């Protein structure tokens, strides 16, 4: 008797409201401890207190299909079928996010397509984080607006198959629902207007630059080609030979730079030896040159002495002749 739906409950989607949950999951919920202890004789008024104690959102988890308190309260709401006003208050509640998630899921299961879009779409502005338990019993974070979007788009939430609802576009065409206005439309329009203004400014700057460039090209005098200008310097044979010579010199220099230091030491030693040999030859040559100069000087003195002696003899002979003649002698 405790698991039966209330007598005055209305059928949902042409069936018993509890049948919206699969039989195997429903059976596991009936057998769990939370259902027997916390959900027994629970009314719509007491449902609020239990909903405020929720800590996470989830369906079943583990290999033995263990139900969570969240899905147990969902099945209890399907069983007692609270009034619509209570569910709307659950959805509009801003203090307890898991109470809102519970009311949103129940509205998605039992409400019409128009009610789902009307009451759930305003929750897109709720960006609070909620904890979700997956089938492995692990927790991960999700935002409330993501959870609402999954309710309107996905086929299964918390291991419950969601009833089908009409597309929003069909309700808009039949004038049952107004076109949805996103809170980001104004921001997007402002961004588009700013981008258009930036594009216009960029085009104006480009056009001004092109005009200035055109005026400069018109004012710039044309240069006549020089008659002495070479047509093709790259194919000149002399230039190629000169380039080869430069390249050969660079290669030789590079090879010299790459030689080891031992070669440099040997080269310095050989250079010193050549300088020393050259210095010895220079000293010998210098001594020979001095000896030749001394020899020449001595020969000059000897010749000068002989010449002086010859002059003295000539003067003496002349004086003897002048004395015989009675004339004055010559001075030496």
UniProtKB/TrEMBL annotation:
Residues 187-201 have a biased composition (Acidic residues). Residues 216-225, 240-268, 276-297 have a biased composition (Basic and acidic residues). GO terms for biological process: mRNA splicing, via spliceosome. It holds the Pfam family PRP38. Residues 187-332 are annotated as: Disordered. One of its GO terms (cellular component) is spliceosomal complex. Keywords: mRNA processing, mRNA splicing, Nucleus, Spliceosome. Belongs to the PRP38 family. This is Pre-mRNA-splicing factor 38.
């Amino acid at each position: 008797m405790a698991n039966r739906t209330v007598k005055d409950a209305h059928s949902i989607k042409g069936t018993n409201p509890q049948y919206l949950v699969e039989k195997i999951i429903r059976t596991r919920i009936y057998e769990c401890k939370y259902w027997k202890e916390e959900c027994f004789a629970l009314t719509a008024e007491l449902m609020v207190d239990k909903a405020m104690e929720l800590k996470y959102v989830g369906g079943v988890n583990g290999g033995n299909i263990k139900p969570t308190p969240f899905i147990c309260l969902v099945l209890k709401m399907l069983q007692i079928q609270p009034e619509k006003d209570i569910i709307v208050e659950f959805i509009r509640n801003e203090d307890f996010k898991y109470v809102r998630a519970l009311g949103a899921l129940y509205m998605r299961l039992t409400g019409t397509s128009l009610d789902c879009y009307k009451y759930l779409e305003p929750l897109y502005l709720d960006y609070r984080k909620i904890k979700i338990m997956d089938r492995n019993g692990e927790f991960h974070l999700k935002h409330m607006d993501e959870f609402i979007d999954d309710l309107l788009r996905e086929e299964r939430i918390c291991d419950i198959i969601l009833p089908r609802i009409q597309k929003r576009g069909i309700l808009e065409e039949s004038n049952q629902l107004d076109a949805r206005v996103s809170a980001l439309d104004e921001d997007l329009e402002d961004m588009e207007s700013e981008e258009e203004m930036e594009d216009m400014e960029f085009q104006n700057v480009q056009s001004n630059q092109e005009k200035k460039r055109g005026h400069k090209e018109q004012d710039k005098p044309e240069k006549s080609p020089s008659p002495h200008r070479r047509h093709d310097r790259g194919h000149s044979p002399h230039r190629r030979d000169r380039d080869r010579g430069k390249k050969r010199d660079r290669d030789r220099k590079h090879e010299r730079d790459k030689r080891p230091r031992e070669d440099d030491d040997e080269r310095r030693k050989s250079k010193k030896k050549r300088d020393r040999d050259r210095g010895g030859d220079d000293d010998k040559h210098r001594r020979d040159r001095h000896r030749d100069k001394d020899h020449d000087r001595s020969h000059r003195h000897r010749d000068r002495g002989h010449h002086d002696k010859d002059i003295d003899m000539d003067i003496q002979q002349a004086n003897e002749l002048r004395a015989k003649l009675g004339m004055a002698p010559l001075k030496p």
